[in-house]
Amino acid sequence: MVLLKLCWLLFVINALTIGGGFVMLPMLQKEFVEKHHWLTNQEFLDAIAIGQLTPGPLTVMNAVIGYKVSGVLGAILAMVSSYLPCIIIVTLVAKYYYDYRESKIVQSSFKGIKPAVIGLLAAVAISLGNTALVDPLTFGIAIISFAVIAFTKTDPSFVIVGAGILGAVLL
Amino acid sequence: MEDKITVKDIFWKFLKIGSFSFGGVYSMLAFFERELVEKEKWLTHEEFVESVAIGQMTPGPPIVNTGICIGYKLKRIKGALATTAGQSFTGTLLAILLAVFYVKSKGNVLLTSVMKGVGAAVVGLLLSIIFKMSKSTIKNLKSALFALAAFFALALFNLNPIGLILASGIIGLFVYGRRP
To answer: By CB distance 3.0 to 4.6 Å, which of A51, B79, B82, B127 could disulfide with B74?
Structure first.
């Protein structure tokens, strides 16, 4: 029953992940951390870090969530349900590309969704920041990470590894 | 040309692509183009560009979606499944291994310190994503209002993000869909 719910939620969330992998975070946090308590905020942060460190898109973090909820089977089913909506939607769009591209409905609804997800992400960043930023040092790490990723071309994976080493040494 | 490509070939090629897909979207796309268009000649440059466009305008990770589209062009639904499986195999396996390790060593003092640093970096990463997305998406008052409304709806009123995304799509339809 838990597995079914996990799969259904991941299917819906991934079908609505419009504009990049990070868009799923507000939905994941609400459903898995706040509503179902399958993870804590800290575990959610750690899942994001693992998703970022492993090759492939952030979506891989759903395998971590699936594992936490229901072991290896949970992890595999989590990935299948995350990619199923992609396969369905992309193959349909590939078939009807020209109609889709010109579609007013798709264009105008995406125009509303794309800025809205930025607001949602900002709210999630505050919530996760409350958990992760507990002293001047963690604040410092967050600010430096922000600056390095936003203003240089450094791969975020390096920043995360660096912050982990810094944490091991200083915290 | 396309008849000679088997589903197995597609799987192995995308396994390779998926295993080395560190780095940003653009370096990944360059890798795709080199492997699939220049080296294997599985698709033309135009087909590739169209696949990238489709990958970016569909829900889900753009790179995986580009792969799905290419797989579908090569071998219909079987090709789409092969690219997805190939692309996600290594990452999923590694994520499961890390998750096992993570759950097993819960409470370990060193891991707790490492994850404290990592958690702070993730918050910084998230802020930089918000910063970059804002620069490319929030261009006028209307789009700023969409972002602000969504922010307050979640941060203050704790409404459900799934509902909020659906609602902003519907409102977008009314606001932007009426132009002649």
So the answer is: B79
